Amino acid sequence: MDSHPASTTSAEDALDTLSSVLDEIRSARSRSRAELVARTGLSRGVVAQRVSELIEIGLVVEGDVGPSTGGRPPRQLAFRADAGHVLVADLGATSIDVAVTDLDGRILGHRDEPADIAAGPERCLGRVDQLFTELASATRDLPGRLWGVGIGVPGPVDFRSGRPVSPPIMPGWDGYPVRERFATRHDAPVWVDNDVNLLALGEWRSGIAIGHDNVVVVKIGTGIGAGIISNGRMHRGAQGAAGDVGHIQVVDDVSIVCRCGNVGCLEALAGGSALARIGELAALDGRSDRLRVALDQHGRVTAEDVSRAASFGDAVAVGMLTDAGHRVGLTLASVVNFFNPSLIVVGGGVAQSGDQLLAAIRETVYRRSLPLATRELLVKRSSLGALAGVIGASSMVVEQLFSRDVMARWLRSGAPIPHETAVSAG
Ligand SMILES: [Zn+2]
């Protein structure tokens, strides 16, 4: 916690310590009262009291006796992931993924199908409603009641209001009240976030970024964006726009026009749309036989075609991915010097296939960042695969439910309360 004003009450202190004790147990960093004392710096008395409260509320269970370190063997403490369940939907540009999870992000049921985000919010979210209903009735033994709903969308979101803000590939969604739509149908709080933040939260809670407190997760799909974990928290910035690295200007060339309206953006040179465009040119002017075949077969070249051609050794495609990787790496080197993460995770459709892009990013980041900042820096590929979106959406909901301010509102009633009466959490 940050420094407190002089007027801090003991009730607020109690909430702070409750929240940090729960976070320790939930992340499995501490498994006993002794470990909690050692890791949090709280007194034995305070730890004992907070643990009792969490057991009484039903969020923590006392399990088997753990390994003894000399004295009386300690009782193992565990988070009760089955205290409730969470419904999540990850909307991509061309797909809908829905899932029901426990409070640890474990997927209990899952559905996915093709969809067009440009069909607008009524159509897309109407389908999410239907899939939620199907999923809830088809999944056996759902734990507890519904504790939260999480929605991910492929564009910028004002996290406080749960509304998309001028999303470039989502016509009809600007300002649409996504949260309200689900809040009227479900007796649980609802949060909406962008796909990149969900990827970051998923990797941090359940993937390759576990244990890292300062992480940048870059998603290279159609566009490019980054999610930031700073000091063990998701950093969204003042309006939820943090991490939009795709629109950092990297060249001074008026012919490189970005979908955001500016010129010379990283995304306009190295994102999936850019790779598709450059790949199509290479197919048309006969520089790449493989891309020519892709063009003839489908009538267009996609970023996936470029990745596939590169994996077969197509020199033009390899060159394109290497060039894109260097450009992303240059921007990330600035981010590294500014933010000093211990881990960069690279994910998204374009980054998932082949090694050229990741290798070029890694090489450029190490070469162009300051030595102190790269001394212990790791650059790794995303680990969650196709389920990253729904796992991330579940992590996002649970992060919010157990954040200090949100928990303060529902703790006494024993289970989370819907958004009309809860704080619109930031
Ligand atoms: Zn741009």
Average of per-residue pLDDT values: 91
Spatially, the strands of the biggest sheet line up as 5-4-3-6-9
List the uncertain runs: 1-7, 421-426
Task: List SSEs in N-to-C order.
Answer: HHHEEEEEHEEEHEHEEEHHHHHEHHHEHH
Judged by helices, strands and strand pairing, the structural class is alpha/beta
Biggest sheet, open or closed, and with what strands and sense?
5 strands, mixed
Radius of gyration: 23 Å
Amino-to-carboxy terminus distance: 16 Å
Small molecules bound in the structure, each named once: zinc ion
Number of helices: 16
In which range does the helix fraction lie? 40-55%
Would you write up a description of this structure?
With 426 residues, the chain is of the alpha/beta class. Helices cover 42% and strands 18% of the residues. The protein contains 16 helices and 14 strands. Strand 7 and strand 8 form a beta hairpin. Helix 1 crosses helix 3 and helix 10 packs across helix 11. It binds zinc ion. The site of zinc ion has 7 residues, from helix 7. Zinc ion (ZN) binds next to helix 7.
Quick summary of this structure?
The protein is α/β, with parallel strands linked by helices. It is built from 16 helices and 14 strands.
Structural features:
426 residues; alpha/beta; five-stranded mixed β-sheet; 16 helices; 42% helix; 18% strand; globular; disordered N terminus; disordered C terminus; binds zinc ion
Walk me through the topology.
Blueprint: H1 10-26, H2 33-40, H3 44-57, E1 60-65, E2 75-79, E3 84-91, E4 95-101, E5 107-114, H4 121-138, E6 145-153, E7 157-158, E8 163-164, H5 178-183, E9 190-194, H6 195-206, E10 215-220, E11 224-230, E12 233-235, H7 266-270, H8 272-284, H9 289-298, H10 303-311, H11 315-339, E13 343-347, H12 349-352, H13 356-368, H14 371-374, E14 378-381, H15 388-401, H16 404-410
Helix pairs in contact: 1-3, 2-3, 6-15, 8-9, 8-10, 8-11, 10-11, 11-13
Zinc ion (ZN) binds at residues 247, 258, 260, 262, 265, 267-268.
